[in-house]
Design goal:
The chain is mainly alpha-helical and 329 residues long. It has one domain: Rhopdopsin 7-helix transmembrane proteins. It is built from twelve helices and three strands; from the N terminus they run αβααβαααβαααααα. It has a three-stranded mixed sheet. Helix 2 packs antiparallel against helix 3, helix 3 runs antiparallel to helix 10 and helix 4 packs parallel to helix 8. It is globular and about 60 Å long. It starts with 7 loop residues before the first helix and ends with a helix.
Length: 329
């Protein structure tokens, strides 16, 4: 039974199965995900606060990092809040509008992070290969354009794909074998032919992944070509780029893994675990990857104090959590 276009959004509900097949693990998983989310909130919002209060961190690299932390915080909150809820309540339903809204936000922030990391790769290329022209090349205007372009393209991709999802018809009370409303699982419960919608999604996914990886690869190939003749520059260069290389490798490695895993019943658990790593774990890792090597970050963290930093982070996270929770209702 399909729903008409007029009443589709008001009556249609989805059931997110997630980890419902493993009831013995609900409590341990809830505690693990809650711990990860707490670290994510404190880590990412803490980085934003630290960068804001320490004038020595008002650099281009940390300008990008503050936005990356904001994107990671928003991305994690949208996904983890519903995941935690579904681990403690019996009613795992989500309205059609809530599911579409969750996809819209996660898609937007996911694409934004992809190109934010690419912009940071270009920043490292300019810093290593053209250090004398760095401040001129990486002007405030260009940095603002790179960050604004990442957000804008994320919104464009999200709204475009959301529009094509809304053109499909859906069966009433469909079951989604996942913990998140992503593109593939929403299409899987559609009652109409999703061929055009799938092709649009495929084109966007390939373009985003290939273009961002090309920027990343070209930047680091040129960096390595520049530093190879200078043995003394190796250590400094790797120290500068190691954090970013690590973040990009983890992020794109997980995405490419999800691309190549066949979407079958036997591989569904693998897909869910990989999705958890991509949407829940990676946002937690990024702050530690970028901050462990920086003395200024550590010193500012000590000056602010753990308690104050946690209080600020919780205050900001609760405000955003209430906002996005209202969107998913």
């Amino acid at each position: 039974m399909t729903l008409s276009e007029g009443n589709q959004s008001s009556t249609l509900t989805f059931t997110l199965l997630g980890f419902s097949e493993y009831p013995e693990f609900w409590l341990p998983l809830f505690l693990v995900f809650l711990s990860i989310y707490t670290v994510t909130v404190v880590g990412n919002l803490g980085m934003i606060i630290i960068i804001k209060v320490n004038s020595k961190l008002h650099t281009i690299m940390y300008f990008f990092l503050s936005h990356l932390s904001f994107v990671d915080f928003c991305y994690s909150t949208i996904v983890t809040s519903k995941l935690l809820e579904n681990l403690v309540v019996e009613d795992r339903t989500i309205s059609f509008s809530g599911c579409i809204t969750q996809f819209c936000f996660t898609c937007s922030f996911g694409v934004t992070e992809t190109f934010m990391l690419a912009a940071m790769a270009y920043d490292r290329f300019v810093a290593v290969c053209n250090p004398l022209l760095y401040s001129t090349t990486m002007s405030q205007k260009l940095c603002a354009l790179l960050v604004g372009g990442s957000y804008t393209w994320g919104v464009v991709c999200s709204l475009t794909l959301t529009y094509f999802l809304l053109t499909l018809s859906y069966c009433k009370s469909s079951i989604i074998n996942h913990f998140i409303c992503n593109y593939s699982v929403i299409i899987s419960v559609s009652c109409s032919d999703p061929y055009i919608t799938q092709m649009v999604c495929f084109i966007f996914a390939i373009f985003n992944e290939v273009s961002s990886l090309m920027i990343f690869l070209m930047s680091y190939i040129l960096i390595f070509i520049t530093v190879i003749p200078s043995a003394s520059g190796h250590q400094k260069t790797f120290s500068t780029c190691a954090s970013h290389l690590t973040a990009i490798t983890i992020f794109h490695g997980t995405i490419l893994f999800l691309f190549y895993v066949p979407n079958t019943k036997t591989s569904q658990l693998i897909i869910i675990v990989a999705s958890v790593f991509c949407t829940v774990v990676i946002p937690m890792l990024n702050p530690s990857i970028y901050s462990l090597r920086n003395k200024e970050v550590k010193n500012t963290f000590k000056k602010l104090g753990v308690t104050k930093l946690i209080c600020y982070s919780i205050q900001y996270s609760l405000t955003y959590f209430i906002f996005q929770k209202n969107c998913l209702l």
